[in-house]
Amino acid sequence: MALIQMNLRLEKLRFGLVSRMDLAQIQSDLAKGGLLIDVRSPEEYAEGHVKDALLIPHTQFFSADIPAEKDAFIYLYCKMGPRAEFAASVLKERGYTKVTNLGGLDDMEAIGFEFEE
After folding, report:
1. Who contacts 4 (Cβ-Cβ below 8 Å, separation ≥6)?
2. Based on CB atoms within 10 Å of each CB, which residue in 24, 25, 68, 102 is the most buried?
3. Smallest Cα–Cα separation from 58: which of 34, 35, 84?
């Protein structure tokens, strides 16, 4: 299992799905009105999520009311990265200009985010 996770992380790095941003910069952007959005299902979110993350399932991004300006920093994550990438592409189509897929839960832990239930 660990080998599979390591290979997946290498693939995400290869395809640019893992952000190399640092936690201090992300927190600064969030403090200026940015959003951190968990795009997983409500059930997954209830099992544990990044502290202060807003839940908007990826299936709702076409019509969801995003509580941010079009030029606000928006950071997305899911379990492994692909759903966040889908949500990012939808937000960009809707005119949001500073959208970043931070990847999956392992990536969020590596960046240094705190988790809560």
Report:
1. none
2. 102
3. 84
